[in-house]
Structures are given as structure tokens and as C-alpha cells.
């Protein structure tokens, strides 16, 4: 069987081809699955998708009409898939339940340190042989307070690093993580965390109830000199409200690896035609804001684990097995 994989990065392709060798053939495309590209999948029983694919009602209908029966998502998040429609159409949908939490946690800290110590501005200056320190002053994080919204596997890894910095640890989550408690984390209400934290990092999944969890009110509750980092999902932050606060000169730094309207932008080269998203364009004009292109997960270790799990999900499907990675089970196969 040949599998069609959408949204495959150049670095990712050899990993996929090697992992599927001896099992199934795989055709890798660099285009993302959306309304325009869905017809390409006609005749493919299994397609593999990336986090920036759009699997809404129309796309799923197109896939079903073309004979696709299984969707193997190469990510943990699945907010881009209409699971109710997928179930109604009889798809099997599987995701990657787990991969290295250190990849994302370490990158979140990379963003935090970069905006705190003005690394991008400093690097740009020294490339022009400008070695002044004006405007580059940062702050020690030792002894300051970090607020972690979401203390699952990634939030825990982020907290362990914060503990190593010698920071006071505040957490917010639906359930307390015993490992974080052992590190000295104090769980508090979200408003208290936002008001007291010098650094706020987001590690909650995107659900309807967490959309814009950092809204205008939450942003106003934060310290003027706080650092805000988001390496989870873009829609956790109300970007328009964030721009409004930044225009008032607030926040030491904001590090964003995700953006709520990133689909159709991130992972693509828009350097020639430019970007029509005025909010993103305005966001990137602020000198205390650093935006990266959803790369927190992008390590050899994490990508390797993602692909290994994706292969296993496909093998489980073809063998009629079901694992914890299955989001939507179809009827058992009879062939």
C-alpha cells in the first residue's frame, strides 16, 4: 500500500521514508492538506497530515469521496480535525499521543531567554559591527517568579528547568502534578498567577474552553515588565488584545512559536509575495516580540518519535488493532 503524506518538511522526509521502508510505500508532499489540495488524495486509503492541515467538513468529505479511510496525524494536537464529521464518515483518525516534552519545554526557555537578554537585537547589531550595549539590558531570572499555565508533561519539563534557575514556581491546571509539587510549585488561581509571575509560559492544549485563555483581561492582570511565552497553540492568546497592550509599551518581552492564524503562513516561504495578515505584521514590528514558525517540536528526537508512532498507528490500522492514539475508531476491518 502507498501512503500519502501532506506537509512534509525537507528535514522530515528521509525520516519518514526510512521508517516506512519494509512496511509501506510513502509519497511525501510539501503542500498542506486543505480544500485545494484534498483532491490529490483520491485513491489513497491512508493519508498522513501535519498540525497545520485543515480537516474541516469539506476536506473530510473530499477525502471520503476519494476513498480515504484512515488519517494519521503527525502531531499531538488535533484541533484542526472535525472529529464529529470524521466519525460520521467512518474514518479512523489517529494522532501521536506522546513525544519528547523536552523539545518544546527547552524551546520555550529559548524564547524566554532570547527576549529577556535581547539576543536577536544583539546579534543583528554585532553583524554590523555595532558593539554598543544600549537597550540590551536584561534581568536575572534567579529568585523571580515563573507562572506555568498547564503542568502536563511539557509543563513539568519547563518547570524542572525553572527550578534549576532558582525561580519561585506558580502553577495553574485542572489537576495538580505531583512531580511539580515536589519541586516546590504552588498551585494558584489563574488571576493570581498572572498578577505575580515575572514570566508566564503557556502549556495547555487548545479546546473551546481554553481558546483566548489569555485575553484582554488576563493581559491587563500581568505585570508591565512580565515576559509571556507561548509554545503551545496560537489561539490560547487573543492576539489583537496582545497587540493593544504592546502598543502601550507593556511587557519586557513576548516569545511566540505559534500564532492563532498561522495556517497558510507558517512552514511556508512568504518572503516574496509578503503577508496580508495585518495583525501578524504589526505584531512583528515590536522590538520586544520574537516570533518563530512553530518549530518548538522540531528536534531529531521529537520528530523521530512522532514518525515512529505514526508508522505504528498505520500498522495498527492495517492489522485491525486499536491503540490509545486512536481518536476516532472506524468499524473493524474485514480484509
TrEMBL record:
Protein name: 2-hydroxyacid dehydrogenase
Organism: Streptomyces cavernicola
InterPro entries: D-isomer_2_OHA_DH_cat_dom, D-isomer_DH_CS1, D-isomer_DH_NAD-bd, D-LDH-like, NAD(P)-bd_dom_sf
Entries under PROSITE patterns matching the protein: D_2_HYDROXYACID_DH_1
UniProt keyword Magnesium, yes or no: no
Signal peptide: none
Pfam families: 2-Hacid_dh, 2-Hacid_dh_C
Highest taxon, organism lineage: Bacteria
Domain D-isomer specific 2-hydroxyacid dehydrogenase catalytic, first and last residues per copy: 6-327
Domain named D-isomer specific 2-hydroxyacid dehydrogenase NAD-binding: residues: 110-296
GO MF term set: D-lactate dehydrogenase (NAD+) activity
Family: Belongs to the D-isomer specific 2-hydroxyacid dehydrogenase family.
Keywords associated with the record: NAD, Oxidoreductase
EC number: 1.1.1.28
Amino acid at each position: 500500500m502507498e501512503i500519502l503524506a501532506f506537509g512534509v518538511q525537507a528535514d522530515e522526509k528521509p525520516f519518514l521514508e526510512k521508517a516506512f521502508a519494509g512496511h509501506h510505500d510513502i509519497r511525501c508532499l510539501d503542500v498542506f492538506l486543505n480544500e485545494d489540495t484534498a483532491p490529490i488524495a483520491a485513491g489513497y486509503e491512508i493519508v498522513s497530515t501535519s498540525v497545520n492541515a485543515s480537516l474541516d467538513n469539506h476536506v473530510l468529505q473530499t477525502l471520503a469521496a476519494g476513498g480515504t479511510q484512515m488519517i494519521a496525524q503527525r502531531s499531538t494536537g488535533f484541533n484542526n480535525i472535525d472529529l464529529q464529521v470524521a466519525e460520521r464518515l467512518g474514518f479512523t483518525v489517529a494522532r501521536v499521543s506522546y513525544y519528547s516534552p523536552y523539545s518544546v519545554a527547552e524551546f520555550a526557555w529559548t524564547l524566554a531567554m532570547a527576549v529577556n537578554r535581547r539576543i536577536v537585537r544583539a546579534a543583528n547589531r554585532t553583524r554590523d559591527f555595532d558593539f554598543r550595549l544600549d537597550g540590551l539590558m536584561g534581568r536575572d531570572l534567579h529568585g523571580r517568579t515563573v507562572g506555568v499555565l498547564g503542568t502536563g508533561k511539557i509543563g513539568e519539563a519547563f518547570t524542572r528547568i525553572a527550578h534549576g534557575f532558582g525561580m519561585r514556581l506558580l502553577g495553574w491546571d485542572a489537576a495538580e502534578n505531583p512531580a511539580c509539587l515536589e519541586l516546590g510549585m504552588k498551585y494558584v488561581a489563574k488571576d493570581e498567577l498572572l498578577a505575580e509571575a515575572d514570566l508566564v509560559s503557556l502549556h495547555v492544549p487548545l479546546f473551546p474552553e481554553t481558546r483566548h485563555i489569555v485575553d484582554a483581561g488576563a493581559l491587563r492582570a500581568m505585570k508591565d515588565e512580565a515576559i509571556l511565552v507561548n509554545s503551545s497553540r496560537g489561539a490560547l492568546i487573543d492576539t489583537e488584545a496582545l497587540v493593544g497592550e504592546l502598543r502601550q509599551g507593556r511587557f519586557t518581552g513576548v516569545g511566540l512559536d505559534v500564532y492563532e492564524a498561522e495556517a497558510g503562513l507558517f512552514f511556508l516561504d512568504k518572503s516574496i509575495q509578503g503577508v496580508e495578515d495585518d495583525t501578524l505584521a504589526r505584531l512583528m514590528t515590536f522590538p520586544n516580540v520574537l516570533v518563530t514558525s512553530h518549530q518548538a517540536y522540531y528536534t531529531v528526537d521529537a520528530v523521530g518519535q512522532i514518525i515512529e508512532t505514526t508508522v505504528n498507528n498505520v500498522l495498527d490500522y492495517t492489522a485491525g488493532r486499536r491503540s490509545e492514539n486512536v481518536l476516532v475508531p472506524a468499524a473493524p476491518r474485514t480484509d
